[in-house]
Specification:
This protein has 352 residues and is α/β, with parallel strands linked by helices. It has a domain of 76 residues: Double Stranded RNA Binding Domain, CATH 3.30.160. Helix content is 35%, strand content 21%. The strands form six sheets. Strands 8, 9, 10 and 11 form a four-stranded antiparallel beta sheet that branches. It has a three-stranded antiparallel beta sheet with strand order 3-4-5. Strand 14 and strand 15 form a beta hairpin. Helix 3 packs parallel to helix 6 and helix 4 packs parallel to helix 5.
């Protein structure tokens, strides 16, 4: 059979990647500014500005106090000992953000939730594409296939969108990327476009310019453009964004559910086209779950691929104890150890 190879999905030799092709070795962690995100949340909830206090000078341990509109009492979050006071305040703000998300039903739109939504949509589209091929094989043409989009803000929750421009500034500073200023222009009274140019990406002298679509508010245009640039830089610089919804186990689980949908679609496509399509089989465990030494002791062994089901053994009657020779002699099978009384067993007795 002819073989069709897919160069777009081919992995880099010798480099470990996850389900979507992101490299897993030497990942650079970027921690978002949680202090700014905490301020966004308190403003959205109409709470007073959070206050930071230093509780231990020797260990640089700080706390953040989040006041509500119900009284003088405040929620206290401890950042713990750290090398600098800023890192302790950042840790306290991170703990506060994740606690307030649960307490006040806050939905935060960030990089991690966007990544999981991307994997879920990929699985859904593979499922629809498989159904389309099955319809064509059955002679059904023109039947619409509706896409179900998920992982949106739940009904009744408070939605907060992360300031992606602050994350983009951290990435540009840490990865030493040369870029132009983020510019905006107004098209009439209520339409805005933003754009910026990046140069010297990974030692290259080429430049890349990014544009946003038209938005009614200038803040939305700037934030959308920053999100687009971040998504572009993550695979190039192998970045790992630590944000409010950061949870590699949930991302791994979403990729595990997506892998069978892709394999099922490829199998249906091979049967429909009558040819073999050579694509790399994704691992069932796309990301590294156990990262610490303590976790390795509790790590559950996982399979790299689905094993082939064992073949059933031929059924043999133990009571008869008949051995059959497998070789054919004169076109017939030769049977040994046949009981002599076998013809009399089935002989019908004569009736007077």
């Amino acid at each position: 059979m002819p073989t069709v190879s897919s160069k777009l999905m081919a992995p880099i030799p010798g480099v470990k990647t996850d389900f979507l092709g992101s490299r897993l070795d030497r990942r650079t962690q970027i921690v978002i500014p949680f202090q700014g995100l905490l301020l966004q949340i308190t403003k959205h909830l109409h709470f007073p500005t959070p206050k930071y206090k230093l509780i231990d000078v020797q260990t640089n341990s700080a706390v953040v106090l989040v006041y509500t509109d119900s009284g003088p009492e405040a929620y206290t979050y401890v950042g713990g000992p750290s090398l600098t006071i800023h890192k302790s305040c950042q840790k306290a703000a991170q703990i506060a953000v994740r606690d307030l998300m649960v307490r006040f039903n806050i939905w935060i739109e960030d990089i991690s939730i966007s990544k999981r939504r991307e994997i879920d949509r990929c699985a859904g589209l593979y499922k629809l594409k498989r159904q389309e091929i099955l319809n064509l094989s059955r002679g059904i043409v023109g039947r619409p296939l509706l896409e179900k989009l998920g992982r949106g803000a739940p009904i009744g929750s408070e939605q907060v969108i992360v300031d992606f421009t602050g994350i983009l500034q951290l990435i540009i500073s840490k990865c030493h990327i040369q870029s132009s200023d983020l510019e905006t222009i107004a098209h009439g009274r209520s339409k805005y476009t933003a754009w910026m140019t990046l140069t010297s990406l990974k030692g290259s002298y080429d430049s890349q310019t990014f544009f946003s679509v038209l938005f009614d508010h200038i803040e939305d245009a700037v934030n959308s453009l920053a999100k687009t640039v971040i998504d572009y830089l993550i695979p190039i610089y192998n970045l790992e964004i630590i944000d409010a919804n950061y949870n590699p186990k949930l991302t791994a689980y979403a990729a595990i559910l997506c892998a069978p949908e892709m394999e099922s679609y490829m199998a249906a496509k091979e049967r429909f086209l009558g040819m073999e399509i050579m694509v790399p089989t994704p691992s069932l465990l796309p990301v590294k779950i156990c990262s610490g030494e303590k976790d390795l002791g509790f790590k559950i062994p996982t399979m790299i691929s689905i094993p082939v089901p064992p073949k059933k053994r031929p059924y043999k009657t133990a009571s008869m104890q008949i051995s059959v020779e497998t070789k054919m002699q004169n076109g017939q099978r030769k049977i040994f150890k046949v009981p002599e009384e076998l013809p009399t067993v089935f002989k019908r007795a004569k009736q007077n």
